[in-house]
Amino acid sequence: MNTVGPVINHPCTLCCRPTSMWCSRCQNAWYCTPEHLQTDWPRHRRECIPAANAQNYNMIATPPPAEQQLITVSAILFEPEEGVFIVSPSPSGASWTYPYHFPERPRIITVKCRPPQVPSQGMCPQPQIGVHFPHEQTESIVLTQGLNGEPLRFPLHLWYSPTALSRCAPINRAIYHITSGAAAKHWCGTVVVLKFNGSRRQGYSDAGSNDLPALSAYFLAYK
Fold first, then answer.
1. pLDDT > 90: percent of the chain
2. Phi, psi of 36, rounded to the nearest 5 degrees
3. 134: burial class by Cβ within 10 Å (0-12, 13-18, 19+)?
4. How would you classify residue 180: left for phi > 0, otherwise alpha for psi between -120 and 50, otherwise beta?
5. In this model, does residue 4 exceed pLDDT 50?
6. For the chain, how far is it from start to end, CA to CA, in angstroms?
7. Whole-prediction pTM value?
8. What CA–CA distance (Å, rounded) separates 136 from 162?
């Protein structure tokens, strides 16, 4: 801390100890140590307005903005059929190939969501789901009705690949499974489903198996 310049003592905002150092950003709050500014920063940042003419002495650097913490929630993953083949050599020297498919059931996964830059704006966190849609653009649908058209208290947010839907491949076997193959049109491509924490859709809560009936009803009605 620099002590060059005119000495004007003011009480420290946090402990009232006399000090000649102030916040470098607003020059309107006084602190005896950088640690006291750091401690008071969660409160002071709401009133810290940058000064028009900042001086270069007797100042304490303003702490940098806190790094945003990612929010983790449970989501439902519906994967398309991904066929692989098992090669088995026969005694005669020839090889036989047997098709193998991954389990045809939805899975509960963990998704990290990035909070909005300004939480007070009421915007929903952005889910980080790119790993499930490599090299594909995503779009989303908000499902607000469940079985028999009843409103959902916690709407469901479906993320999907419009490219996979338009080319009708690959067929999503997990969705085929929960609809027992009775849908008029097969859904294609990966689907990730998150669950809003309320009708205002300002955040997510954990999705689970109890959300499958509403999803099944939606996919059955898809045309």
1. 40
2. -70, -35
3. exposed
4. left
5. no
6. 69
7. 0.63
8. 9
Query: pLDDT per residue over 21-37, tens digit each?
Result: 888 888 888 888 888 88
Measured over all CA atoms, what is the biggest interatomic distance in the chain, rounded to whole angstroms? 97
170 cis-preceded (ω within 30 degrees of 0): yes
Which token pair is 67?
A: 């790094």
The CA–CA distances, whole Å, from 64 to 6, 37, 47, 67, 184 equal 27, 12, 15, 9, 55
Per the structure block, which two tokens stand in for 185?
A: 């049109």
d(CA 41, CA 29): 11
Collect contacts of 142-148 with beta carbons under 8 A, ≥24 apart.
142/196, 142/201, 143/214, 143/215, 143/218, 145/214, 146/213, 146/214, 146/217, 147/213, 147/214, 147/217
Q: Is 29 within 8 Å of 50 (Cβ atoms)?
A: no
